[in-house]
Design brief:
Length: 66
């Protein structure tokens, strides 16, 4: 089955035997996160547990890159 990552909108294909595919079939497709975003979020969540602060932090970091 094809799944779309909610963050980067990358389309991934999961094997039907994949336990994650079975799980997603019973849930809305927007719950899927690709490995990359999963890792990124896991790391960021560890650094900062407040989602609002994380969002601000993320925006500031983005601006600082330019
Ligand atoms: Zn992603």
């Amino acid at each position: 089955m094809k799944v779309k990552c909610v963050i980067c909108e990358r389309i991934d294909t999961l094997q039907d035997e994949n336990p994650l595919a079975k799980k997603l079939r019973n849930r809305p497709i927007h719950t899927y996160l690709c490995d990359e975003c999963n890792d990124r979020i896991a790391t960021k969540t560890k650094e900062n547990r407040d989602p609002e602060t994380y969002r601000l932090h993320h925006l500031l970091n983005k601006e600082a890159d330019f």
